[in-house]
Structure formats: C-alpha cells, structure tokens
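Structure, all two chains, one model.
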Amino acid sequence: MAISDSERPINSVAGQSVEGALGAANQDVVWNHDHVLDLDDFSYEEIESVITLAGKMREVLDRRIARAPILRGFTMINLFFEPSTRTRASFELAGKVLGADVISVSANTSSVVKGESLIDTVKTLSAMTADAIVMRHGMSGAPYLASKHTRASVINAGDGSHAHPTQALLDIYTLKQRLGDLKDKKIVMVGDISHSRVARSGMWGFSAMGANVVLCGPPTLLPSGFLVNERPKHARSALPDVDIETNIDVAIKDADVVMALRLQKERQQGGLLPSLHEYSRLYQVTSERLSKAKSNHILMHPGPKNEGIEIGGDVASGSNSTIEEQVTNGVAVRMALLYLIAQKNQREN
Amino acid sequence: MTTLAIHNARVIDPELNLDGIADIVLVDGHIARIGPNEAEMVIDAERVDATGLVVSAGFIDLHCHLREPGFEYKETIATGTAAAARGGFTTVCAMPNTSPPIDSQASIESLLRQIEQSAQVRVLPIGCITVGRQGKELAPAGELVDSGVVALSDDGDAVADASLMQAALSYSSLFNLPVSQHAEDPSLVSEGQMHEGWVSARLGLRGRPSSAEEIFVARDIALAEVTGGRLHIAHVSTAGSVSLIAAAKARGVNVTAEVTPHHLTLTHELVAFDNNYKKIDYNASAKVNPPLRMDSDLEALGIGIRDGIIDAIATDHAPHSLSDKEIEFDLAAPGISMLETAFALAMTRVHDGTFPLGTLIRSLTSGPVRAWDLDKRTGLSGLGTLTPGAPADLVIFDPEMDWTVEPNNFLSKGKNTPIAGRTLKGKVLVTISEGEIVYEDSTAAGRLRLSARGERS
C-alpha cells in the first residue's frame, strides 16, 4: 500500500504541489548540519527553519491521504538499541509519508557484548548505502561515535541521559503554535533532571529561542554544574543559562509552560527517592499547583507518562495540555529534518 | 670491564644537593665517579657528550601496567619496558592486575622469568592485596615478599571492605611492605565515567565524585594509624586528598602518595572539549580512574609535589588497544598510555613555575625510592641517586626541547593518549640502564656519541 501511494504523481497529492509549498518555505532555510546530534549547535535561525518547514509538513499530515513522496530513493535506517514505541514509530511514519525507504533494526545492547561493536554495525549499515541513520542508544554519546564512522547522516533519537534533539524541536514547534513566540517565556521542566535527555536538549533549544528555563526536581535528581556559578568563568558559554529550583510551587509560579518529565521507577530502587508516593506528593504536576502558573499556561509531557506519579490524570487530558499535539507534531518535525538532510546531501553530491 | 663516560653534563641530584656541570663515569653497571673533568681521565670508554643537557638518576615509576601475562594485545613486558626506556624510566613497578593476577608464588615466578627474558629496564613486581583481586581474603603476603614483590595493590579496584583493608595494613606491617590503595569508594563511583562536575552534567555521564576518593583516603589513613601499617595512596587526584595526606604526615602516620602526570596537568574538560566550548565530544582517551579533575585540584597537586606532601610522580601507564577505547564511552576502558609522555607532561609544571626542575627530578627518582625503601633491596643500594656505587641508571634530557606527541610512534602498544598532537617542552634523549644505553632518541643520534678519544664522531 505504501508503494502504491509513493508511486502516485506528486502533484496529485491532495490536489496541491507539495514541492511548491516546500519550495516557498525553502527560500530562506538556514541549515548546515550533516548530523543532528543535539541542539547545542543550533542557532535561532536554524531552529526557525525547522519549525517553518515542520508547519508545511504538518499540512501534509493533516490531508486525507497523508503522502508527499519527495524523498523517493532516500534510505533511512532506524537503529534502536533501546526499546521505544513512539519515537521509533514517529520516525518510521515521517520517512514513509515522504516516500523514503525505511528500515528498522532492533539492535539489542547485548549484541555489543556479543561482539558486534557499534562501529561495526554502523559501518555495515553505511555500506548498505543508508542516507540517514536514526539512532537511539542507552549510553550518552553513542551517536557522536557513530557519526565519525559513517557517511550517512546520524539523527540522534535519544542517547542515554544526554540528548533528545528531535523531542526538543517538536516541543518548540508545539509551543510556537500556541504562544507564537518563546521570547522571555518561563518554561519549567519538573522531574528527574539528572537522567533526562529531554531536559538537556530542551534547555539548549528553549534558550536558543529566548525562553527562560527553570529546572525543578529533588536535589538527588538535579546535577550540579548547570548553574553558571558552578562553572569556571572561561566555561560560561559551555551551557545555556538556566535557573534551578527545588521547590515546585516556587518554580511553577507565573510559568508560561510546565513540562513534567517521566520518572523512571528504578530511581527509587537506586536510593535517590524514598518512594514514588513521596515523589508524587512533592513533585507531581497537579491542577492545584498549576493554578499558580499563568492562566493560559501550557502543560507538556514528552511521554510515555506515569499518570498519578509525575503528572495528575486530570491535567494531562485538560485543555492546557498539548500532550497529544506533541505526538502529531513529532512526525512533522522529523519529516522536516529528513527533508533538510536529504536536501543538503543532494547539494553536496 | 665496560666503561661509559658522560662528558660535561648539567648534573642534577637533589639527594646529593648537586646541580652543576660535571662528568660521570660508569663502570660495570655502577656509578664509579662523578665530578668535573672525571671523564677526561678515563682511557678506554664509550663516550657521550652531554653539553647543554641535563643528567639525572633514571626515573622510577611506582605504578605502571605492563599487561603481561594475559593482555599481551594491550602491552607486553618487552614493549612496555621499551616505552619506559624511551620515557627515561629505568625502574618500573608493575601492577598485578594481569591474568592470572600476581597473587601467589607460582604466578610471580613465572612473571619474573618473563621479565628476565624480555625487560629492557628493571621491573619490580607488585603483588595483589587480596586473592584474585577479589577483595575477599588476603593474598599470602609472606610468600609474595619472599618471591620479590616490592608492594601490594589491588589497583584498578579499591579494597572496599574496611575490615579487610585494616587486616591488609596490619598484616603487611610484618614485612614493612607498602600497601598501595586505589582510593575510590565503589559505592560512590559505580558506573561512574568521569569526574562528577559540570562537564559530566553537560554530557549526561555518571560521575565519580572527588568525595569518593577523599572518603577512602581519610578512612585508610585512620586504618594505617591504628595498625602502624604502611599506606601508599596511588594516583592522588583531589585537593582534599592532598590536605588529608599533609595532615596525616604532619602527625607521623606512615603514609606516602603518588600523583600522575595527567592528574597534575589535565582537567575533566578534556573529555568534552578541545579548544572551545562550542562543540562537545566524548573523548574516551581522556577516560581514566580516578578521573581527571578540576583546575583547583591541579593547583593543590602541584603544591603537593612542591612541598613534598606527595612523594612521587608515577605514570599509571595504562595501555589499551584501539578497540578498548573506540567504543561507547561507558564501555571504554579507563587509562592513559603515559610512560613516553610522563616526563614532558610533568615538565609543564616546571615551565609554569609551580616547582623547580630539581623537585621534579626528586619526585621521579629519590622520592619514589624512599617512599617504598627500594634502595634497601639487594643490589639496589643508592638507587635513585648518582652516588658512586649506585646502579648506573641515568637519563639525559633536554628540558627546553619542543616535540609533538604522536601516538603512532609510541613504542608502547597502547596509543591511547588524550594529548596526541600536543607540543610538549622537555625531551628524554638518552636512557642508560645498568651502564647500557637502552634508549637513544633519533634526534640525538650522532649528536651525543663521542669517539674513544673524546672527540665528536
């Protein structure tokens, strides 16, 4: 079925020329990345380019037949060393909507132990002429290593506690849809900051867009070093300026955006929390706590969520919540990234 | 009778309070004479012209990993000691974390045979503290001493159990044997990949906090104090540890310590950043345990050497294969191939004025010898000094010569270094072990050798 869709002439897709629409958006695209490893090297203009293009992609997605086969002949390999449902499905769908050849490889981290190294795996996939490798890995930095051993573009779909740049981009896109502009908006991320790749990429992306980022969680889940005075002067620029607040009520006050982060249940077994019950008592994002945020605040969650632990069930499905929009927007943002990477590869080849 | 005469060197020996131009005459593997114009009076000798160069006793490394037996793909005694000779080291103490570990008479005798066959410089073995380095029961220290070990260590792992460490210090005092501890509390560093600080926070890597080291340094000092055992702290890396050791020494605790050239000169920033703070990387060549720390630690460690709080500079030479390092950061083996860069890297702190050259030489020669009483061993009287009668172990170096670190040219099998491409100032040109030239730098070839009559060849 996918094949017959992708065989459809481009101009017949929902009656409008997708390439024309993209072309218009394309004129002032700022993009110079071979890989998407994190947002730390993304400028405001680059993020704007992705978001604008994601808007066009969202239009495609909202059509009756969501197909715009502009990436025919582009091969994208999903290489997931960690289980994932939504990110993996989102990338697969993004590729398929654009007519790319999509292959998903479930590599168990134990295969590394069995002898096939990450570098071998990546080189093998490269030799199969992959254009992009979308990689999820449980260890921080793994996509950086991979990117040095392949001609394909590596897109980081989450590495350890380090980064999840496509999540941050889809969050920015979602917020811009609602707020228009992120400048001087107060964005509070609540939860397990220490182990959160969503928080790490979010702080770069939100800061690049001019927002004020506040990180909130119990001291055992907040790393030291994120505050500017915890770094030597010469390294000020090594991280964006953020604020840290352990009291959730103080953190949420007058917030424009509150993002609850998923709490991994093993944190309690690791001795970092007395109990999940205590965590939810102290840090659950509830309607009562949100009443101190701005009245038109936005509630986000990267998913999958533990309702009743880090987020109250009623607020998760409330009108301020963008949780479902985030999912749809995720596909659009990933389509935009694939398109930008394909364009750059084409220019260079 | 073989004679080697060194002409016109700047001879530095802090033990002899010597820093001046002199000749040195080596006869039959021992230092025979030292003084102005001594070489002129020797008739039949191989001659080296050291004009403009410094000569000191050969360097002594209390801490290196030669990997043999068991990990010959990383290093062998032959390649490791060739690297040592190139680095100016004439005596190296080999850590026992081999396979099998050196925890019995049988394993040590086999090791000694291998050393006899293939070592280019003196190798002194270190035995395990606990059987199989498992941290469960004491290895037979008496048997190990009789077989020739110079210290005990489970290096790579700390002896975590306090009562076992107490027993180790207490029992080894029977033989006056140093116990070298890798001081990091495992409960605080499990899965830790680098120094816990802003860089680990930035990279999303698990940290190894300074407190993990300081807790064990403090604990083991207390245990040494009650047992009278002889504690040696391996690779001290934090300012807090330097304070603890200084205080312990001041009240007479039997404790000694070493610092590595990399902990003296490199920081945790090297894991993530090269020249700017824009772009990050996960540089596994800078992964080492204990981890590279902060500027403030470097400062304290420099003072530790300057003031003699830290007895020795030891390399913790830890060679690894490319495949051990070019892998996910969490899986990469910790350690740096250091023998060939140790002297020049440590010279950084001489050139920046932290301590004088004589202090560096002391930390590489008589400091380590006295820490472990190596000169009390048979045949090693005078080791680490240029005293007549001492082993003819010498190094000739140019303290000002620039050179670039090129790991592919290392004699060590381990090319793992975070300072590849860096230009260092200070180069070993000739290394002499028991009166024989065991290393001569290519840039020195022809320049230093003199004819039998004392003319340039």
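Residues 210-227 of chain B form the longest helix (18 residues).
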